[in-house]
Structure formats: structure tokens, C-alpha cells
Amino acid sequence: MFKNSTPREIALRAALTIGGASLGVMLLLKIIVPDSISWPALLLLTLAAVGFSYVVVLTYLDRYIYRKIKLIYKTIHHQKVNAEMKREGVDLDQPIIDDVGQEVEEWAEKQQRQMEQYERFADYRRRYVGDISHELKTPIFNIQGYLHTLLEGGYHDEKISMSFLKKAAKNVDRLQTIVEDLGAISRLESGELILDTDVFDIKELANEVIDELDLKSREVGIELGFKPGADTGFMVEADRESIRQVLVNLVTNSIKYGNPGGATKLGFYDMDAYILCEIADNGIGIPEKHLPHVFDRFYRVDKSRSRKKGGSGLGLSIVKHIMEAHQQTINVRSSPGLGSTFGITLAKA
Ligand code: ADP
Questions:
Q1: For residues 265 and 269, what is the distance between their CA atoms, to the nearest angstrom?
Q2: Contact 275/234 with Cβ under 8 angstroms?
Q3: Which atom of ligand 1 is nearest to the CA of 249?
Q4: What's the gap in Å between 140 CA and the centre of ligand 1?
Q5: Comma-separated ranges of CATH 1.10.287.130 domains in the chain
Q6: Domain 197-348: which CATH number of 3.30.565.10, 3.30.1540.10, 3.30.70.790, 3.40.50.300
Q7: pLDDT for residue 69
Q8: Does residue 194 surpass a pLDDT of 90?
Q9: For a pocket test of ligand 1, which of 174, 256, 298 has the largest count of ligand atoms closer than 8 A to its C-beta?
Q10: Listed range (103-107, 175-179, 268-272) with the worst mean pLDDT
Q11: How far apart are CA 30 and CA 188, in angstroms?
Q12: Prediction pTM value
């Protein structure tokens, strides 16, 4: 009945109703006792009834609505009504009840969304902490084992002590890789990575990465180079250091999961709107059912091979985060025994 009505309109309607009723009563009185009231007095009294009830109803509404609204605002905004609002009171020319109704609805929706988000965060945190403790457990357990064996007399044997110390050191290196990669992931996830965008030649950067990883690849007999026909460089716009990290992770994986005597080729393709950069190897490949998960943190296709190679299981997850921060994509094609090709897109300069 009062939908979309302002307090002033409600007061006016109430006053007119009261005025109409008193006019009716006075007219009845005049009909029954014609001399009881004069026409000017009847008119004056009706006007007075309208005016008086308008002021009374409006004042009441003002106080009543203000008190109710104060309560609602205190609840939904967790705030005290400030002095300015107290002074202002209620805007009597606004459909205040509808406005507050809408605000309460929005508040309820927001609360619901927040609850769902908290639940997602809590679930994510639980899994994250679980994953990390699981990952750290193995190297810590190994180091513990080697050190205790040495302390319990193993150090008397030079061969055993050297071998165990080397193994313990390797596990410490793995711990360090995990901790560093976790740091990188948390920086990326907290949005701390502020892209320092620059224009650069992607082939030039790829060359630097190949030089950096040359020794590592030679050690396992894998040749690093460019794909014939797709070896022309392109100018791209991105955060050079982050893209270096992406290329280092992808090329390192192609070495870790490559076959001795194999090769990793980098190629660049002009895709009109963007540049596609592919890193292709002829290594062990990834079975199809694992492909959708390889970018998940701590996901490994072959756990023992990854651990043996010192992998943290976070390399591809870091790559994905960096590409998402650039609003670009990463994809993978792979067949077991034939090899894998990882492709990233980059904005054309
Ligand atoms: P990791 O530290 O284990 O290498 P990544 O996140 O870099 O972690 O990779 C996740 C998993 O994806 C690896 O454990 C491996 O099983 C698989 N993978 C990644 N790159 C390749 C590749 N080029 N060839 C075959 N498997 C790969």
C-alpha cells in the first residue's frame, strides 16, 4: 500500500483521510442539528484537522523510521550512527522504507557471498598446509635418517660418511627449492607481483635462457636450440624477468623429463593478435589423463622421477600464475614416448 511512497506522502494521505472523516462527522452533525456549526467554522475545523494530523503523523513517522533505520544500519554496517546522520534524521522526501529494504537485501547477499568465500579460503588453506607438510616431510625424514646413521657410528667409515653427507646435502637442496618456489607462489597468489612491463625480443631472451641452461642440458645429452622455420624473433610486451622464469621452468622440465640424446626446440609464431612461443621436447611425454592437472601445485606424473631430479612440483604452477598475471595463456600437448610441447602466448608489441 505504501510501496514507493515517501514519508511525506504517507503523512499527507493519512491527514486527508482523518480530515475527510472529521468533515463527514461534522456534516452529519450539521444535517441533524443545522445550527450546531457554521459553514466557515466547519471548513476551518476540517483544514485544522488535516494540518494537525499531517504534522503529528509526519513527526511520528520521522521518529519511528529513524529509530528503526538506526537499528538496521547498526546491524548491517556494524557502525554507529554518526552525529551528522543524527542531525540529518530521515529524508522525508525519499521512499526510505524501500531504500532500506533494498540495502538489507544487498547486505544479505553480500554476507552470503562472504561466507562462501571464507569456506573456500578455509578449504584452500587446509589443503595448502597439508600439501606443504607432506612435501617437506620426505626430505626432512631423509636428512634425519642420514645424520642419525652417521652419529650412531657411520662416520667412522669414510665411504659411508661421504655418501650419506652427499645425500643429506641433496635433500637440503630440495628443501631449499621447495621453500623458494613456495615463496614465489605466495608472492604471485597474494598479487604482490607487480608486472614491470617492457618491450623486448622474445628470441633474445630465449637465447639467454638457452645459454644459462646449456651446461645442465649437456650433462644429460640434450640439445637446446630453435625450431627451423620458426626461429624469427618477435617484439613482445611483458615483464621480461617473469617471462625468463617461465622459459627457465619450461626448458628445465624439458631437460628433466627428456631422454639422453634428445632435443628441445623453441619456436615463435605470429598469431596476428599475439605471439605464440612453443617449447617442444621429444622426452618421456605426459599421459592424457594427467594433462589437465600438470599445472596444479605439487602435481607430479611420475613422483619418483620428479623427486630424483630435485623438482618441487611447483614449477608449472608458477608458470601458470605468471601467465595469468599477464592475462595470457599456457597450454600443453603431449604423447607418452613422443614428447611434450608447452605453448605460451605473449602480447605483441
Ligand atoms: P616438478 O618439480 O615435479 O618438475 P612441475 O610443476 O614443473 O613440477 O611439473 C609437474 C609435473 O608435470 C612433473 O612432475 C612431470 O611429471 C610433468 N612434466 C612437466 N614438464 C614435463 C615435460 N616437459 N615432459 C614430461 N613431463 C613433464
A1: 13
A2: yes
A3: 7
A4: 22
A5: 109-189
A6: 3.30.565.10
A7: 76
A8: no
A9: 256
A10: 103-107
A11: 86
A12: 0.69
- Ligand 1 is surrounded, with C-beta below 6 A, by 253-254, 256-257, 281, 283-286, 294, 299-302, 306, 311-317, 340
Predicted confidence at residue 76, as pLDDT, reads 75
Q: Architecture of domain 109-189 in CATH?
A: Orthogonal Bundle (1.10)
167: which residues sit within 8 A by CB, 6+ positions away? 142, 146
Phi, psi of 38 (to 5 degrees): -85, 160
Cell matching residue 83:
552525529
In the reported structure, the alpha carbon of residue 233 is separated from the centroid of ligand 1 by a whole-number distance in angstroms of 27
Distance in angstroms (rounded) separating the CA atoms of residues 294 and 290: 6
Which residue's CA is the closest to the ligand 1 atom numbered 20? 253
- Alpha carbon of 329 to ligand 1 centroid (Å): 18
Q: What does the pLDDT read at residue 84?
A: 59
For residue 258, give the ligand 1 atom closest to its CA: 24
Residues carrying CATH 3.30.565.10, the chain: 197-348
Say how many Å lie between the CA of residue 223 and the centre of ligand 1: 19
Q: What is the DSSP annotation of 302-334?
A: SHHHHHHTT--S-HHHHHHHHHHHTT--EEEEE
- Judged by DSSP in three states, 201 sits in strand
Q: What's the gap in Å between 300 CA and the centre of ligand 1?
A: 6
pLDDT digits (tens, 9 = 90+) for 213-252: 999 999 999 999 999 999 999 999 999 999 999 999 999 9
- Ligand 1 closest atom vs CA 177: 2
With 0-12 CB in 10 A as exposed, 13-18 as middle and 19+ as buried, what is 129? exposed
**Measuring CA to CA, which residue among 166, 149, 170 is closest to residue 308?**
170
